[in-house]
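Field: COMPLEX_INPUT
Field: COMPONENT_COUNT = two
Field: RESIDUE_TOTAL = 437
Field: MODE = joint
Values follow.
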Amino acid sequence: MASGSVEGEQSSLADDYDALISTTDVELLKRAWRNEKAAPEILRFESDLITRVREQIELMEETVEEKLTVGTDPLSVSLYQMDLDRTLFLLRSYLRIRILKIEKYMFHIRKTEELWNRLSKDEKFFTERCTDDLKKHLEESVLSKLPENYQSYERQSVISEEDDMVPEPRLDTFVLCRSKEYLTGIQLEDGPVDDRSKLFEMEPDVLYFICYKSIKSLVESGKIDLL
Amino acid sequence: MAGQSNHELSLFSAEELEFIAEDEIVDIVPNLKMDPLCLISGDFGPFTPQIVTQVPLWLAIALKKRGKCSIVPPQWMSVEKLTQVLEAERDSQEMSEHLPFHYVEISRLLFDHARDNISDAYMVRSLIEDIRDVRFHKVETDLEAFNGRTIAVKIKNLSAMEVNIVRPFIGRALQAFYKHDSPDLIPDPERVSDRRPQVAPNAPRRQLRR
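Field: COMPLEX_OUTPUT
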């Protein structure tokens, strides 16, 4: 989907701008981690940010190594190590949540171009392997032994009109979010029937429980943080 | 998976909240001399005995554990301030805005690791506990006001730990309202699953029993 990649570029520009105004990459990673944890679907992989964080981690690992050999005082070395460990935790946790989501919704992600484009190269490779293996497993262990009409891993039977055996994330999950600025005119198109046309406002720094679907695009553009 | 919270039920584990709170900045008074630290999460120091400097809480605790500093408790953690907050909390149904988002975690970490730096520690602790109770009671009564027309819930000044406690409940309650309010969206999942209308590609297949 072409619009997906354009959107991606825009929000990475926003990221760069944020980075410029004194936010550290660790802060940005923490934000990405929280958003990823809170969103029901997989979000765009923060490739630039992750590359930068990885570089910083490697650099810091070298620095710590160097300090150990030079014999810098053990206290400051242990503090550097702690800082490193904290960043590593964030990075690992971020990658793991994504893997959890991929494992859960792999068939859906693989066939939905918009979601597929959000994955990193490694994640795509992983998803391909995963879907192939699971499909093979399902076919060999169960599906091939069922009557012909019931052999699809995607559908209950040939009369199903859609892929009803593919788990999909529930976008109507309610999430907790916070906006950095005053937002008006949020269209709650998916609210209860009577309220659909109502516009919704968000004050900065106030927490809102809201249906993920309604604010999805604002999360993607970085205007709203989930928590 | 160790250390990773179950990503559906309660989003952040208590440990993860503590991890986040450990990045809050506090004042410390070092008693050692140390060069500035250029960490991934920022530059801190230099550290000079008796000169107040600002560091993240985790760094303060690490130094404190080794007896290298004393931690200056944040201003809101004084008997005077907390008494005011408690009164305000009792007087109004609104949540007081004078506590930081992570007040539960910060105070707990400081009690665990820097008790001797907190004056009137016993009083401070019991005040914080009272405040927690009062606030939580308010959250509970607020929840009674929910109804099917609720499309979004606005919460002012709720703290991280409080959010975490009410999150599973509010989330599921709103979802239930949402679901029952739009009957066309989700037909009975057990019976109609093989002729489910095309309008709802994201409707759940089957309600998870929790």
